[in-house]
Design goal:
heterodimer; A: about 325 residues; mainly alpha; MetI-like fold; two-stranded antiparallel sheet; two-stranded antiparallel ribbon; 13 helices; B: alpha/beta; D-Maltodextrin-Binding Protein, domain 2; 6-stranded mixed sheet; 5-stranded mixed sheet; 15 helices; Peptide/Ni-bd (chain B); signal (chain B); peptide transmembrane transporter activity (chain B); Peptide/nickel transport system substrate-binding protein (chain B); SBP_5_dom (chain B)
Chain lengths: ~325, ~575
């Protein structure tokens, strides 16, 4: 187990190094000059050159990448003299637009996205998996058919459609719920939950549709397996057969998909964040792209990669926990 | 002010604000108001106008929290870097410049002393030496007094290349000819504490000595450049995040791109301030909502948003819902300082008859329709916008807004001029260009369209030898007089190889001579001079087709009182605003 985790971590670090190199190449080699965007209206060529020097983007690309890596591990500084800005490790860059180290921006934004995704995931997994299981066990009944119909509708809808409808119905026209907002969990758990209710409902409904359909199909398949028949033949109660034997087997592929889904979403849920006006990583990334705020783009892309890689490792470990046949070696 | 880009609906909206001087805009001020509107701006040395406290607003109540919802955070709050109208209005709550605008929302705009006891003394009567005396009792948030040395330091630091995003009037006037910061780059890294020509004989006096006369200095002194920054509190680039307050409010918390919270500066004394009433106890600015979300929330007027407003325009999709009862009275609309024109490259289109024909041909209505119609602006016939002091509407061509085909045919006399139309590749600009192409083709021109990437649009058309004949451009004044419209945009002597603002490349000695003459007039007499020159330029050279006066169309919640449009900034003013109980 330990060897497995260590090996996977090493591969993960390598993956991230490659991703950082590619991202760096892609974004820092773009033809439009971030210095020009930053410099503003009455900017001369000399001003632009000065901004480029301050940002450190006048240096050759390999040197810039070395600076970046150095910043991550030991910190770095930008500019000189009275305008020197220090960026302590782990320095993912400095946003001159925001006058903030990028690490600080990420630390501010990540909890918003985490809250949206984790709250939503609890809802969509609980709702989806239980709906799917119950449908499978009551295959062909009115409940099953209704569940399939609703989930088909849910799976066909998009966040920007369903979210706007919820906003219109529950916020704009009736005022039943406040417009979503983010309050840190540590500040007030009640306001944290109240502010995120709408995005959770939206993500919960839409994503649970997929999970319900998936877990129903998996469950049906498992229920027809030999080991389930054996369990029944041994005289186990229906409840034991369903939860201890069938569910455990059926859930493995769902864990894989859920892990990847959550990992991907943690990197930023731009559409959800935009619709509900929440300042998460997704919005930070898109805004940074618009303003050519490259250090922020770089950091958020890397962070998204970290989440996906980490989610993969977690899924693999969970596999071994759920399915005793899987050996981590 | 360089053009403002209208905010586009949709998720990419924020990007539009980058190069722009501002937040976006619209109006329905029904051309009618604008035709009759005459801006009555002036500089007031009257003691009554220059004395605090500000005149109370009828029915206003003190207290409450005002919310301002904006799509994007301010680029800068540092006074040296502050050059966008939303930032100027927000900054006005935090710091006071030498001068400021006293407005009552009816078009009466007075330039008065803010930190200074009056709008500046022209010491020798030649507009070269100006002296300001600071008011007694103006204090920073920590209770220490504001001194003239702090004003000098504020101006000095605006020379630093790292803080160069603000206006450069004072800097260029102090160091004319060439780059203003070639020899002085601010008080940093061993630079001297104040630029040449700025002296502080004592703690309450500041004196400017310019090599050339600048009679509109009182207006330049209303820009945030002259806001005081104590050297001991100067955090350089980080000052953007936490300006040291000399105004009625101070920064309580600021999370970039999320929210800026202001609370009262306990050391601000209303008796020293002739401009600000500062009724709300706190002001909360939130960032990151889409333009349409803001409008929807303000239309819905939910409990949490009743004391809120936004400086962003209501987008076309929400406009229809702003006309009903309960909403219409919460709309604030009117012209801004921006005017959009079709610049004609006079180096290429040398025939005055063709330029006149274009003035008869352009369908101004079609250009406005693309932006949402009446709410976005009204057809223009002048070079300056109706918000300019001394503005008098005139219409030399008297063509219908959709164009006068017969007159065009008569002028062109059978010829079919071929013109290259350059346009930004933004969606709305492309639609406008397409409308223009259709319209001009129908009127008897051959049009070749040349799309240009939006980020380099003004660079491209600002190149003297650009290969284009006509292109749309917007310009807004930096202060409400013609001196920041006519000279920067129509003085041929300012034409350089790249980065031009004179996009029609009009280069007429008679215009230059008249500019020089008007510039030397006392500020009060300049207004009429600029307006007359506006007309003369159109009459004799027709270097542009005035297309539309930009307008704003903003909303506020039902508990916001005295939300009036600032004529100086083209957005809702916060100086006399209050939260209803």
């Amino acid at each position: 187990m330990l060897r497995f985790v260590v090996r996977r971590l090493l591969v993960a670090v390598l993956t991230l190094a490659v991703i950082s190199l590619v991202t760096f190449g892609l974004f820092f080699a773009v033809p439009s000059s971030p210095a020009k965007v930053m410099c503003g209206k009455n900017c001369t060529a000399a001003d632009i050159a000065q901004v480029e020097r301050r940002l450190g983007i006048d240096r050759p690309l390999p040197r810039q990448y070395a600076d970046f890596v150095q910043g991550v591990f030991v910190g770095r500084s930008y500019g000189d003299g009275d305008f020197r800005q220090d960026c302590p490790a782990p320095c993912l860059g400095y946003s001159f637009r925001n006058n903030q180290p990028v690490t600080e921006i990420v630390v501010q934004r990540a909890p918003v996205t985490f809250s949206i995704v984790l709250g939503g995931a609890v809802l969509w997994l609980a709702l989806g998996v239980s709906l799917g299981m119950v449908s499978a066990l009551r295959r062909g009944t009115a409940f099953d058919r209704a569940a399939i119909g609703i989930t088909l509708a849910g799976a066909s809808m998009q966040v920007y459609f369903f979210g706007l409808i919820l906003l219109y119905l529950l916020v704009y026209s009736t005022g039943l719920l406040p417009f979503p907002s983010y309050t840190p969990l540590t500040e007030s758990p009640v306001r944290w939950a109240a502010g995120l209710l709408l995005p959770w409902m939206t993500l919960g409904f839409l994503n649970s549709a997929l999970y319900a359909r998936l877990s129903r199909a998996q469950m049906l398949e498992t229920l027809s397996e030999d080991f389930v028949r054996t369990a029944r033949a041994k005289g186990l109660s229906a409840r034991q057969v369903h939860t201890r034997h069938a569910l455990r087997a059926a859930i493995t592929p769902i864990v894989t998909i859920a892990g990847l889904d959550i990992g991907t979403s943690l990197g930023g849920t731009f559409i959800t964040e935009t619709i509900f006006g929440l300042q998460g990583l997704g919005k930070a990334t898109v805004e940074a792209v618009q303003f050519l705020n490259l250090p922020v783009v770089m950091a958020t892309v890397l962070l998204a990669a970290v989440f996906i890689v980490a989610a993969n490792i977690v899924v693999d470990v969970l596999y071994a926990v759920i399915d005793p046949r899987v050996r981590l070696s | 002010m360089r053009t403002r880009t209208r905010t586009l609906t949709g998720v990419l909206a924020a990007a539009a604000l980058v190069a722009a001087g501002c937040s976006p805009t619209t109006d329905d001020s029904g051309g009618d108001d604008q035709k009759t509107k005459t801006q009555s701006g002036s500089i007031s040395y009257q003691a009554a106008d220059n004395q605090g406290p500000a005149k109370p607003v009828d029915g206003a109540t003190r207290g409450g929290t005002l919310t301002v919802m904006q799509p994007a955070d301010f680029e800068h709050l540092d006074p040296a870097r502050n050059y966008v109208n939303t930032q100027q209005v927000a900054g006005g709550l935090l710091y006071r410049a030498l001068n400021g605008y006293q407005e009552d929302g009816t078009g009466k705009l007075l330039l008065v002393g803010d930190l200074a006891t009056n709008p500046g003394k022209d010491v020798n009567g030649d507009c070269k030496v100006w002296e300001f005396t600071l008011r007694d009792g103006v204090k920073y948030e920590d209770g220490s007094p504001v001194t003239s040395k702090d004003v000098a330091h504020g101006i000095a630091r605006s020379f630093a290349p790292a803080l160069n995003e603000g206006p450069h009037y004072l800097q260029q006037w102090l160091y004319p000819g060439g780059a203003y910061n070639a020899s002085y780059q601010g008080p940093y890294d061993g630079g001297k504490p104040a630029p040449d020509g700025v002296t502080t004989p004592d703690d309450r006096t500041i004196r400017f000595t310019f090599p050339q006369p600048h009679c509109d200095l009182p207006y330049a002194a209303a820009l945030a450049t002259s806001a005081p920054v104590p050297a001991a509190k100067d955090t350089r680039a980080n000052y953007d995040l936490r300006p040291f307050s000399s105004g009625p409010y101070q920064v309580k918390s600021y999370q970039r791109d999320v929210a800026l919270e202001l609370e009262r500066n306990p050391n601000w004394d209303p008796a020293t301030d002739p401009i600000r009433n500062a009724y709300p106890d706190s002001v909360r600015m939130t960032f990151g909502l889409e333009q349409a979300q803001i409008a929807e929330r303000l239309v819905a007027d939910g409990a949490a948003d009743q004391a809120a407003l936004s400086w962003t325009d209501v987008p076309p999709s929400v406009l229809p819902r702003t006309t009903g009862a309960g909403v219409a009275d919460r709309v604030v609309k009117g012209p801004t300082q921006y005017n959009w024109v079709l610049s004609i490259n006079t180096q290429r289109v040398t025939d005055l008859t063709v330029r006149r024909a274009l003035n008869y041909a352009v369908d101004k209505d079609a250009l406005l329709k693309v932006l949402g119609g009446q709410a976005a602006g009204s057809p223009a016939t002048t070079l300056m916008s109706p918000t300019t002091a001394g503005f008098q509407k005139y219409d030399l061509f008297n063509a219908p807004v959709t164009g006068d085909k017969a007159k065009v045919a008569e002028l062109l006399a059978g010829k079919r001029p071929k013109l290259v139309l350059a346009h930004s590749n933004l969606e709305l600009r492309t639609q406008q260009a397409e409308a223009l192409r259709k319209n001009l083709t129908d009127m008897g021109f051959d049009i070749v369209m040349k799309p240009i990437d939006n980020s380099s649009y003004y660079d491209e058309v600002g190149r003297k030898d650009n290969p284009y004949d006509i292109y749309l451009s917007g310009w807004g004044s930096d202060w409400p007089t013609g001196s920041t419209v006519i000279p920067p945009v129509y003085d041929g002597r300012e034409i350089v190889a790249e980065g031009n603002q004179n996009l029609s490349y009009l280069n007429q000695p008679s215009v230059g001579a008249e500019i020089d003459r008007v510039r030397k007039l006392p500020a009060a007499e300049q207004d009429a001079g600029w307006m007359a020159l506006d007309r003369t330029i159109m009459q004799e050279y027709a270097p542009v087709v005035p297309c539309y006066y930009d307008a704003t169309y903003e909303l506020h919640g039902s508990k916001v009182g005295n939300a009036v449009l600032s004529d100086a900034f083209g957005i809702i003013s916060l100086n006399g605003i209050y939260v209803k109980k």
